[in-house]
Amino acid sequence: MAELVLSSVAQGVLTLTFNRPDSLNAWTDAIGRRYFDLLEQAEKDPSVRVIVVTGAGRGFCSGADFTTLSAIRSGSYDETPDPRPNTFPTTIRKPVIAAVNGACAGLGMVHALVCDLVFTAAEAKWTTAFPRRGLIAEYGLSWVLPRLVGQQRAMDLLLSGRVFTGAEAYELGLVNRAVPGESLMEEVLAYARELAVHSSPTSMAVIKRQVWNDWDVTLEESAKTAVREMLASFERPDFGEGVASFLERRDPDFPAL
Fold first, then answer.
1. In what order do the strands lie in the sheet with 96-100?
2. Where does the pLDDT of residue 122 fall: very low under 50, low under 70, confident under 90, or very high at 90 and above?
3. At 117, which helix (H) or strand (E)?
4. Band of pLDDT at residue 78, cut at 50, 70 and 90
5. What angle do CA 197, 187, 123 make, to 5 degrees?
6. CA–CA separation, 182 vs 12, rounded Å?
7. What is the DSSP letter of 242?
8. 47-69, pLDDT tens digit by residue?
9. Each residue of 193-232: pLDDT tens digit?
10. Is-contact 56 42, C-beta < 8 A?
11. Cα separation, 57 vs 24, whole angstroms
12. CA 159 – CA 172 distance, rounded (Å)
């Protein structure tokens, strides 16, 4: 049986690839468990500084597998859900970058947008799909989408379930970059390697926590937290190394998490 999620590390970047290409990487409980297990392993692996997530073949993730949906519909679904929520990647201290290479629908769109950064093939097909399946905005997407694109645009994507391209996703502000599919992984990996070399792993971990957590707090609360975090950063070796490497015109040698 083929691995449900492929894993490879190079130059501080871990690439995870959903590997059910015949189904456009439709989501199952098994693929989810494997993905989250690999994220947990990456969290503990000092050789990993950045994580890239993509899909094998023509899809990123086409949403929940229809076998699963059919079992739920018939009442025969008997899988034990993974206790880790679909927002689990937001809790990983290392940056997670989605490389959306193709079909990104429903639950697949959730998994793209709970990554910290999103790059997409310009021609990739995106859709929330939910209302066209008699479903609702799942797993926090009604929270994430308005914050990324604004309420009216989020309403359009959620209520219509229409298909849109990666190029439009960029125009909407949903993704960081939309590039030709043939150059997607080259651009994503180049960006990830830049982070792995030049950004402090500890700084990235703190910044990630600040950004995800600060969506729910006031400006005053955010500023107070930032002061505490800044004072703590002065005490870490990363600060000294960051200043020294700049003055000495060399790449920094930041410690791993």
1. 5-10, 13-18, 50-55, 96-100, 117-121, 177-179
2. very high
3. strand 117-121
4. low
5. 155
6. 23
7. H
8. 999 999 999 999 999 988 767 66
9. 999 999 999 999 999 999 999 988 999 999 999 999 999 9
10. no
11. 7
12. 16
Which residue pairs, CB below 8 angstroms and at least 24 apart, start in 144-151?
144/113, 144/114, 145/113, 145/174, 147/215, 148/113, 148/173, 148/174, 149/173, 149/174
CA 252, CA 257: separation in Å to the nearest integer?
15
CA distance 236 to 107: 39
* Mean pLDDT value across the chain: 93
Burial 49-82 (b: 16+ CB within 10 A, else e): bbbbbbbbbebbbbbbbeebbeeeeeeeeeeeee
What value does the mean pLDDT take over residues 77-81? 72
Paired tokens of 213: 């957590």
Q: At what angle do helices 219-234 and 237-247 cross, to 10 degrees?
A: 80
Please report how the helices 219-234 and 201-214 are oriented relative to each other, as an axis angle in degrees rounded to 10: 170
DSSP codes, 211-240 = HHHHTTS-HHHHHHHHHHHHHHHHTSHHHH
pLDDT tens digits for 162-173? 999 999 999 999
Q: What is the pLDDT of residue 144?
A: 93
Spatial separation of the C-alpha atoms in residues 62 and 149, rounded to whole Å: 22
Find where tokens 């926590």 sit: 209
The answer to whether residues 125 and 101 touch, using CB atoms and an 8 Å cutoff, is: no
Quick check: 62 and 102 in contact, CB under 8 A?
no
CB contact at 8 A, 180 and 130:
no
pTM of the predicted protein model? 0.94
